Amino acid sequence: MIGAPLLYVCVRPQKGAAEAEYESFRTAMRLEPHQLASLDLVRETAPTDVADRYSGFVVGGSPFNVTDPESSKTDVQRRLEADLLGLAEAAAARRTAALFTCYGIGVVSRMLGGDVSRGHPEDTGPVTVHLTEDGRADPILGGLARSFTALTAHKEGSGAVPPGATLLATNDGCPVQAYRVGDRLYATQFHPEPTTRAFTERMAVYRDDGYFPASDFDAVAGRVLAASVTEPVRMLRAFAQAFGPG
Length: 246
Prior knowledge:
By secondary structure, the chain is α/β, with parallel strands linked by helices. It is built from eight helices and nine strands. A hairpin with a 7-residue loop joins β7 and β8. α1 runs antiparallel to α6, α3 packs across α4 and α6 packs antiparallel against α7. It is globular.
C-alpha cells in the first residue's frame, strides 16, 4: 500500500529481546517509529487483511525452529507459523513485499517445497557471506560488497535453494544464505539488523539455549564485537527504500 508503514513481525517469546530487535530493524532501515509498525505474533494473531494494511514486512528471528517435531510445537508456534505462511504466500503472489530472516527463511523454504534440516547449522558469531551472480544483479543486495561479514546463530538451514527461488548469497557452512522469490519476497539465513553490540545483548538472553556453550560467552562475544558488519544493514536500507513508506 503506497504511503503505508512497513511492519516488523515479532516471533520471539522473549519480550525484551523482541523490543530490542524492533529497534535494531528500525535503526538499520533509518525509519521513524511511525514508519515501522509492530505486530507480535507470539501474543496476537495476524489480522486477516494484514497484507493489505502495510507497504511491506520484515520478519525477525526466533528460538523456534521449523524442524522442531510437530509433537513438541506449542499452539503458539503452530499458529504463528501459519500466520507467517500467509504473509509469505502474499509476498510470493506480489500482493505485498516481505523480508524473512533466520527462523523465517525455514517457513518460506518449506512453503516452496524446499528441504530444511539440522544438517546446516552455524555457530553464533560472524561468518563470511558471498553474493552469487544473481545476487550481484539483485536490486536489493546488488549494492553490497561481493563478500561480506554477517552475524548468524541457527540450528537449522538448507543445502539447496528451494524450487522457484533465486539464490542470492551463499557460504560453505550453510549454502543458502539469501534468496528471492519473484521480485517482492526475500529471505536471509543471517541476521541483517543488529549491530555487534546489540547481537551480544541478544546472546545474553539466549546463552542457555544451546546456540553456544554458556561458559564460552565472553569468547564468542569478543569475536562478535571485533567484527565489522556494515553490509547487511545496507541491504535493509535498500529494502526500506524499495518497499517502505517513502
